[in-house]
Amino acid sequence: MKINFNLKNLNPVLKIFLKSFLIYTSIFFIIIVFIISAAGCSKKVDIKTLLKSKLSGEDEMNAAVDAVDNFFKYLQSDSLSEAFNLISSKDKSNHNFDDFKKEFKNVTKIVEVKINWVEVKNNIANVGIDLTDSYDNEEKVYKDLVVSLVKEEDGSWKINFWD
């Protein structure tokens, strides 16, 4: 006995089922092959290393922001020697404390410093600020100022004061 298998001889409902099954099965295998090949191309990253680098990046940003924040707090309280300690060693090698004091001889009173953003790339940081000062009881806002910092050999962030 010979069995002939022909789609023409099948029930129409069964034909639709088989065609759908073949189409969906083909699509499923194509998706699986794509996922496997894409997964093979991706770089494997250790979660611990990823978190550590993310957290250390945030620590660096926070340290740079703290240096800027402290610098302006010292200026606001007329603690120029403390502010001078936050100046980069390169600037200190080219200028002394008397030069620094002269820079602030005729400067208006700083009322507020608002830190807007921070960017750290390797040993350089930039911190975006808005500065409000007061002169003759009038306040003026300086928007989008950028404070540049450099990371010193001891790991601390210092202000690039004289560029």
Topology as H/E string? HHHHHEEEE
The named CATH superfamily of the largest domain: NTF2-like, domain 1
Structure classification: alpha+beta
Please tally the β strands and state the result.
4
Count of separate DSSP helical elements: 5
Low-confidence stretches: none
**Assembly state of the chains shown:** single chain
In the CATH hierarchy, the architecture of the largest domain is: Roll
Give the DSSP E fraction (strand runs of 2 or more residues).
25-35%
Shape summary: elongated
Word description of this protein:
The chain is α+β, with helices and mostly antiparallel strands. The protein has two domains: 9-41; 55-159, Nuclear Transport Factor 2, Chain: A, CATH 3.10.450.100. The chain is built from five helices and four strands; from the N terminus they run αααααββββ. Strands 1-2-3-4 form a four-stranded antiparallel sheet. It is elongated and about 100 Å long. The termini are far apart.
Topology:
Elements: H1 12-41, H2 47-76, H3 80-84, H4 89-94, H5 97-103, E1 109-121, E2 124-135, E3 138-151, E4 157-159
Antiparallel strand pairs: 1-2, 2-3, 3-4
Characteristic key phrases:
Nuclear Transport Factor 2, Chain: A, 4 strands, 4-stranded antiparallel sheet, alpha+beta, 5 helices, 163 residues
The gist of it:
The protein is an alpha+beta fold. 48% of the residues lie in helices and 26% in strands. It has 5 helices and 4 strands; from the N terminus they run αααααββββ.
